[in-house]
Every structure is written in structure tokens, then in C-alpha cells.
């Protein structure tokens, strides 16, 4: 039996601050293994003109008993299935970091193809374009042993070593992280012959992270394309100064967007 629309929304979306009079919505996609709370609290920080929806994936938080998704299509279908009615109501922007950047783009691409709906801005962070050579040659981390996987995790920064040393936390954390990496490592996306989008696209990245092919993202849009490099490694966006910079930028871009909304 299918859940009512409101229950389905509550299952898939965390929204700390309901803003029915907001002029736009910001839909945020988690990094690999991540939950929705980091982004949901942005709703308490951003002005009331922007309502924040944080995507909650199976296998974590209130959905801990649900099996993990195995491919990107499942994420796209669920998010669009739940959000399509509200995305038709008012302008929206998408934000995703790392794994979330791929999920955000996949949703934007599907919305355009299936429903001729487009975000007013697409914000991508900490990831090479999925079709870039940098991405396609990346080792499959989800296939590493737990020990080697943890060594890699520590090397990219952002996860406190004491957390990684806690067996109980790892027991909860590792399966979700590996499941998400499996999804993105098997996500196939060819470089577009023509840009599928026309909205502005901004790529953020940490200066000390491993190099990402951000320029390759330029091919997804015929609109403005911007790269913003901030201090820090892979999880640079968790640092308060960087977070403030990102949120100020998002606010300005979303509030001043003059793109025709179809």
C-alpha cells in the first residue's frame, strides 16, 4: 500500500524550517554515507525566502531499516516521484557535494528530459564531471577491504580519526558509505553532445582536495559556468567560514535569479 503524499515527503525529505512563503527551494543531496541533517539545518541559517529540503536516502536516519539503493536510477526516481508536485510550484535550486553532486546532476538531467523542468541554479561541489577522464579512471573504492577503505577515508580528511576508531560507529557508518560509493562508481553518464541544461552552474571545491575535473562540468549547460575554490580538503564545506561563504553565495544567486521559470 502506497504511503500518502505527505508521508512519502516526510520519509524522503528533512525540512527543519517550513517556509510556505519562500520564493524558492534549495534541494540538497548528501555526500556518500551522509545523512540529511547537515543540510537540513541550513534551513535555520538561510533567509526565509529560501526553503531547504534535504534528501534522506534509505539505510540511514529514520530509514535505517530500508535496504540501500543499488543504482542512481533508484535515487532519481524516488526524489522526482516525491518532489515533482512541489517543484512545479515555484523555482528551485539543487546543491550536492561529492556523491551528492552526481545525484543532483542526475536529478536535474532527468527533470529536464522527462518534465521540461529546470533548476534556477545547479550548485556542484567536490566532484569531477561523471564522464570526465579523471572520474572514469578513479579506482573503485567500494571494493576495497574495510582496512584499506578506512586508510583511504582518513587520507581524504574530514572524518575524525577517533570516530573511525570506534567499532560501533564504523558498524553503522561503513555500509552506507560503501553502498553510496557503489552507486556512483557504477553511474554511467556520457559527455553530452549538446548541453542538456541552460541554467547557471557553479562548482565549489577545496583547494587541498585531490584535483577534480571541474571544467568538464561546463558541458552540461549553455548558461553561466563558475568555479569557486575555497580553503580546505574534501570536506572543506564543513568549516564554518566556508559554509558561510557558500550559503551567502547560494542566497545571492537564488534570490537574484532572473531565469524564466517554465
List key phrases describing it.
262 residues, alpha/beta, Rossmann fold, seven-stranded mixed beta sheet, 9 helices, 7 strands, 38% helix, 14% strand, globular, EC 3.1.2.14, Thioesterase, lipid metabolism
Largest sheet: 7 strands, mixed
The neighbouring-strand order within the major sheet is 1-3-2-4-5-6-7
| Strand fraction | 5-15%
From the coordinates shown, what is the CATH architecture? 3-Layer(aba) Sandwich
Protein model, in words:
The chain has 262 residues and is α/β, with parallel strands linked by helices. It has a single domain (5-252), classed as Alpha/Beta hydrolase fold, catalytic domain (Rossmann fold). The chain contains nine helices and seven strands. It has a seven-stranded mixed sheet with strand order 1-3-2-4-5-6-7, with helices on both faces. Helix 1 (5-12) packs across helix 3 (72-87) and helix 3 (72-87) crosses helix 4. The longest helix is centred in the C-terminal third of the chain and has 19 residues, at 167-185. Belongs to the thioesterase family. It comes from Liparis tanakae.
Amino acid at each position: 500500500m502506497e504511503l500518502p503524499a505527505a508521508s512519502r515527503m516526510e520519509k524522503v525529505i528533512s525540512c527543519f524550517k517550513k517556509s510556505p512563503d519562500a520564493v524558492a527551494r534549495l534541494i540538497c543531496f548528501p555526500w556518500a554515507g551522509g545523512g540529511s541533517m547537515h543540510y537540513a539545518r541550513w534551513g535555520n541559517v538561510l533567509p526565509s525566502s529560501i526553503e531547504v529540503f534535504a534528501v534522506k536516502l534509505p539505510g540511514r536516519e529514520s530509514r535505517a531499516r530500508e535496504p540501500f539503493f543499488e543504482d542512481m536510477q533508484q535515487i532519481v526516481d524516488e526524489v522526482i516521484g516525491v518532489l515533482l508536485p512541489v517543484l512545479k510550484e515555484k523555482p528551485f535550486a539543487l546543491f550536492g557535494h561529492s556523491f551528492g553532486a552526481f545525484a543532483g546532476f542526475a536529478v536535474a538531467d532527468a527533470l529536464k528530459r522527462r518534465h521540461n523542468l529546470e533548476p534556477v541554479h545547479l550548485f556542484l561541489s567536490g566532484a569531477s564531471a561523471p564522464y570526465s577522464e579523471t572520474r572514469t579512471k578513479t579506482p573503485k573504492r567500494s571494493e576495497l577491504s574495510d582496512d584499506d577503505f578506512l586508510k583511504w577515508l582518513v587520507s581524504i580528511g574530514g572524518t575524525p580519526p577517533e570516530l573511525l576508531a570506534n567499532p560501533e560507529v564504523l558498524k553503522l557508518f561503513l555500509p552506507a558509505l560503501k553502498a553510496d560509493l557503489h552507486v556512483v562508481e557504477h553511474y554511467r553518464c556520457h559527455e553530452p553532445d549538446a548541453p542538456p541544461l541552460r541554467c547557471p552552474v557553479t562548482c565549489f571545491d577545496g583547494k587541498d582536495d585531490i584535483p577534480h575535473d571541474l571544467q568538464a562540468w561546463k558541458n552540461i549547460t549553455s548558461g553561466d559556468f563558475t568555479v569557486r575554490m575555497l580553503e580546505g580538503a574534501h570536506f572543506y564545506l564543513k568549516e564554518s567560514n566556508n559554509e558561510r561563504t557558500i550559503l551567502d553565495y547560494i542566497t545571492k544567486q537564488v534570490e537574484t535569479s532572473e531565469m524564466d521559470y517554465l
